[in-house]
Design goal:
By secondary structure, this protein is mainly beta. The protein has one domain (7-116). Helix content is 10%, strand content 61%. The protein contains two helices and ten strands; from the N terminus they run E-E-E-E-E-H-E-H-E-E-E-E. Strands 1, 2, 3, 4, 5, 6, 7, 8, 9 and 10 form a ten-stranded antiparallel β-sheet that branches. The longest helix has 7 residues, at 82-88. It is globular.
């Protein structure tokens, strides 16, 4: 897969601790998160790569570089609409809850660890 196609992270639900957004740097960071129904997909060069887990994946300290403003509309359903304003202002959310998540990762995703039970890798 030589093209620069982005990855797309979808999930039924994400609960993240100490979430913070840097709009200028296009980054979303959090201390830890539980991710239900996670799927990371990348399509390019006629192939689609998928990493999925139907269970609850857990990740540690995580930083995601993505075009934040483009993603706000599709990042998912915020349990608290106030959280969007706090994140945009550079504040921290102690417990960020999202459902029906679709996050386009056009930069990178780095995490200190990931536990992905029942992980499946598909190339189609």
């Amino acid at each position: 897969m030589a093209s620069q196609a982005p990855f797309v992270l979808t999930a039924h639900r994400i609960v993240a601790e100490q979430a913070r957004m840097n709009v200028l740097g296009n980054t979303l960071t959090f201390r830890a998160a539980a991710i239900d129904g996670m799927c990371i997909t990348r399509a390019g060069d006629g192939l689609t790569l998928r990493i999925r887990s139907d269970g609850r994946a857990t990740v540690g300290e995580t930083k995601i570089q993505a075009t934040v403003l483009r993603n706000l509309a599709s990042i998912g359903s915020f349990r608290s609409k106030r959280d969007v304003l706090v994140l945009l202002a550079g504040g921290s959310i102690p417990k960020l809850e999202l459902s029906r998540v679709e996050l386009v990762i056009d930069g990178y995703l780095v995490t200190s660890y990931a536990e992905i039970p029942g992980m499946r890798l598909e190339v189609v």
